[in-house]
Amino acid sequence: MTRTKLIIGGHYEILRSLGQGNFGQTYLAEDLHARKRKVVVKHFCFVGHSQTTLNKAKELFEREAEVLYDLSNELQNHQIPHFIAFFEEKQEFYLVEEYIAGQTLREELVQKNRLPEHEVIDLLKDVLCILKVINEKRIIHRDIKPDNIIIRANDGKRTVIDFGAVKEISRVVNTQFQTKQTIIYTPGYSPLEQLKGSAKFNSDIYALGMTALEALTGLEPEKLRDEAGKVIWPDGIQASDGLVEILEKMVNEDYCSRYQSAADVLIDLVELEKPKNTLMLAPKNYLPVQTIHKTLLQQRNIIPQWFRFPVLPLIVIAVFGSTSFFSVKRLLMPLENNSSVSQPKPQKIISKEASEKSSNLPNKNNNNQKNINPCPPILAPGKTCQK
């Protein structure tokens, strides 16, 4: 017996159920016209068959389709599912959007119980960037919670899904034709103003703050507040004072005292991650000489520090100094020559007669040399050398 395949829209084959939300059933399907790529199909399940209910269903789904179409072109890196199609079939409404492979934040918390501070900060920054864009589009998500945040498998980025509860705020509201609003909320994550049917733009900031608190502490939102509404911080939770201050401001029950925009929270998160400058104060008493000498000896990289000085001024000084040295020496040379001329060395004065006599001396010297020439070495015994 073969199971009949369910195909909707002519080419979307249903594979399995992904879950059920407030107003619809969600399925994983294959697009048979696009090489069987995985898509998400939302089928609106409404109770009753009145025309009013049908019109409300159509309104909600058309709203989500329009929001996804606009936002998918605004946000980068697929931070929300891309809109694919929206159609009506047999008075049933279907919305087809991109399938994001990964696990939800809820599934991650079941495995890890809680996340370290740096991962919570990354979670806040990823979702706040999305909220910043949708708030600028005059849209409130109204259902931020761990089940609607997916950690993308390929890069670990957080994405937001389930825009079925979005609400567009028009600048001009005609109160005469305004109908009663549909109140959509999740207990523990929705602020008081949203429970009363008057969601604000910073209502999503409250829901994200409660989600981050749950990720940081591992406790459900109902266990994170005391009777007075103050946030309870369990023992053993490692969190910086800056992050604690940011989260407590995000989940302030008074929306006037809460962050007014996602951009404001992002600014404080950036300041939180900046390195803190260390202020060093000089000691009142002078350091002993031994301590200074020991500190100087500990400096090893002495030669590289010489290269930090400007080289050009040193070259100019060297050239100017050598030029000045040789110029001064040149000026002093005439003085040295004059001093040598003015003080001649004593010499013997030889007269003309003495020079003539000395000219005849070589002959005498030659005769004397002949007279004193040694005898030949070979002589007979008893012979003497004759002059």
Portion of residues in helices?
40-55%
Sketch the topology as an H/E string, one letter per element: EEEEHEEEHHEEEEHHHHHHHH
**N-to-C CA distance:** 158 Å
* Largest beta-sheet details: 6 strands, antiparallel
Question: What's the number of helices?
Answer: 11
- Judging from the principal axes of the Cα atoms, what is the shape? elongated
Q: Strand pairing plus helix content: what structural class?
A: alpha+beta
Under CATH, the homologous superfamily of the domain at 101-170 and 182-275 reads Transferase(Phosphotransferase) domain 1
What's the gyration radius in Å? Answer: 50 Å
Strand percent estimate: 5-15%
Which fold name fills CATH's third level, the topology of the domain at 101-170 and 182-275? Transferase(Phosphotransferase), domain 1
Q: Which CATH top level class of the domain at 101-170 and 182-275 fits?
A: Mainly Alpha
Number of strands: 11
Runs in which pLDDT lies below 50 for 5 or more consecutive residues are 170-179, 341-352, 361-370
CATH A-level architecture of the domain at 101-170 and 182-275: Orthogonal Bundle
Question: What strand line-up does the widest sheet have?
Answer: 1-2-3-4-6-5
* Average pLDDT: 76
